[in-house]
């Protein structure tokens, strides 16, 4: 299993970024996917999840209305569109799935929101 995140970077408050997570080594379309984040000095927290077919999504209250999770099962990729970014969104963002009772994590991509 391999999960590779991309799309992080430095953005000003109010700006947008789209994160991508390219998956390989498993049947992507069979598994729910999630994005987590970990800010400096904080625990890792769930940001958003999407069902295997993409028909169901869930969001942390802190990002509802600003972030959108989606997936393309033809490209084995899950996305996180982040709008109206705020300094408190600064964190390393991780792609995650759970396969065969094993937690599978990417290495993360850093998002920094600063003026």
Record keyword descriptors for this entry.
four-stranded antiparallel β-sheet, globular, mainly beta, seven-stranded mixed β-sheet, 115 residues
SSE inventory with pairings:
Blueprint: E1 2-6, E2 9-11, E3 17-24, E4 33-38, E5 45-50, E6 57-59, E7 67-72, E8 77-82, E9 91-99, E10 102-105, E11 109-113
Parallel strand pairs: 2-11
Antiparallel strand pairs: 1-3, 3-8, 4-5, 4-9, 5-6, 7-8, 9-10, 9-11
Our measurement of the CA-to-CA distance between the termini, rounded to an integer number of angstroms, reads 37 Å
The poorly predicted ranges are: none
Major sheet size, sense and barrel closure: 7 strands, mixed
Q: What is the overall silhouette?
A: globular
Rounded mean pLDDT is: 97
Q: In what range is the share of β-strand residues?
A: over 45%
Gyration radius over CA? 13 Å
Structure description:
The protein is mainly β and 115 residues long. It has no helices and eleven strands. The chain has strands at residues 2-6, 9-11, 17-24, 33-38, 45-50, 57-59, 67-72, 77-82, 91-99, 102-105, 109-113. Strands 2, 4, 5, 6, 9, 10 and 11 form a seven-stranded mixed β-sheet that branches. It is globular and about 40 Å long.
Short description:
The protein is an all-beta fold.
């Amino acid at each position: 299993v391999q999960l590779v995140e991309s799309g992080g970077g430095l953005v000003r408050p109010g700006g947008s970024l789209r994160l991508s997570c390219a998956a390989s080594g498993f049947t992507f379309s069979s598994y729910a996917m999630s994005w987590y984040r970990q800010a400096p000095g904080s625990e890792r927290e769930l940001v958003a999840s999407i069902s295997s077919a993409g028909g169901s999504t869930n969001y942390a209250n802190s990002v509802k209305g600003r972030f959108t999770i989606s997936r393309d099962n033809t490209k084995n990729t899950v996305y996180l569109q982040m709008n109206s970014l705020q300094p408190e969104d600064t964190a390393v963002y991780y792609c995650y799935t759970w396969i065969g009772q094993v937690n599978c994590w990417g290495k993360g991509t850093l998002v920094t929101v600063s003026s």
